[in-house]
């Protein structure tokens, strides 16, 4: 019986790190949608967005998401932060047979601290200079996105927890 674990949540919530550890604990393949897009499109996400634009990126993100959701095997899939929030992506995620979507939820101060030093790698926030502005941006953006994230089959708060604790919590959902 195939089982697909689909991790979603805002940038910096640990979708990739937790996804890798979860896959290891369950002896499943780990797939990372951003990485898959980069391989398929032969360009980094930063390059894709800079050269072809955000709308192009959202279109290829949808296309490659659909491909991965259709795979017959069990896996852990880490999405990009915006993936559930465009087109009918969240519906497609929820309708995927034998799937369990999990929202890794974090609050604004936590995400701001995590993202401030790593923002250069993230095109949507790279140009924001001060921590205050970043916190304001994340606050508004998270509010817009929460209605999609909240539809996940399960929600896990991540603050103050280790990766191992999060993996354990996800395993206990089953
Ligand atoms: C995005 C998040 C990124 C990446 C792209 C857009 C977003 O993924 O897909 O830069 O819209 O939140 P991470 O959440 O893995 O940083």
Please tell me about this protein's structure:
There is one protein chain. By secondary structure, this protein is an alpha/beta fold. It is 52% helix and 14% strand. It has helices spanning 15-26, 33-41, 45-52, 54-70, 89-95, 108-116, 131-149, 163-172; strands at residues 4-8, 29-32, 75-78, 99-105, 154-157. It has a 5-stranded parallel sheet with strand order 2-3-1-4-5, with helices on both faces. The protein is globular, with a radius of gyration of 15 Å. The two termini are 14 Å apart. Bound molecules: shikimate-3-phosphate. Residues 11, 15, 34, 45, 80-82, 122-124 line the site of shikimate-3-phosphate (S3P). Shikimate-3-phosphate binds next to loops.
Give the structure's gist in a few sentences.
The chain is of the alpha/beta class. The chain contains 8 helices and 5 strands.
Descriptors for this entry?
single chain; 174 residues; alpha/beta; five-stranded parallel beta sheet; 8 helices; 5 strands; 14% strand; globular; binds shikimate-3-phosphate
**What ranges have pLDDT less than 50 throughout 5 or more consecutive residues?**
none
What integer is the average pLDDT? 97
Instruction: Name the ligand types.
Output: shikimate-3-phosphate
Proportion of β residues?
5-15%
Q: Largest sheet, order of strands side by side?
A: 2-3-1-4-5
Number of helix segments? Answer: 8
Radius of gyration: 15 Å
* Measured distance between first and last alpha carbons: 14 Å
Shape: globular
H and E string: EHEHHHEHEHHEH
| Helix share, percent | 40-55%
The oligomeric state is single chain
- List how many beta strands DSSP finds: 5
Which structural category do the helix and sheet elements fall into? alpha/beta
The description of the largest β-sheet is: 5 strands, parallel
């Amino acid at each position: 019986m195939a089982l697909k674990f689909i991790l979603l949540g805002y940038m910096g919530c640990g979708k990739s790190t937790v996804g890798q550890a979860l896959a290891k604990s369950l002896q499943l393949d780990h797939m990372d949608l951003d990485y898959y897009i980069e391989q398929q499109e032969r360009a980094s996400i930063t390059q894709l967005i800079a050269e072809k634009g955000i709308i192009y990126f959202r279109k290829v993100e949808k296309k490659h998401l659909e491909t991965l959701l259709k795979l017959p095997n069990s896996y852990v899939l880490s999405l990009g932060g915006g993936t559930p929030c465009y087109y009918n992506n969240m519906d497609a995620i929820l309708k995927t047979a034998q799937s369990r979507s999990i929202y890794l939820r974090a609050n604004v101060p936590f995400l701001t601290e995590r993202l401030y030093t790593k923002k250069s790698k993230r095109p949507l926030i790279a140009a924001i200079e001060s921590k205050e502005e970043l916190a304001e941006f994340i606050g508004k953006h998270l509010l817009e996105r929460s209605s999609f994230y909240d539809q996940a089959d399960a929600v896990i708060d991540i603050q103050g927890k280790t990766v191992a604790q999060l993996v354990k919590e996800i395993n206990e959902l089953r």
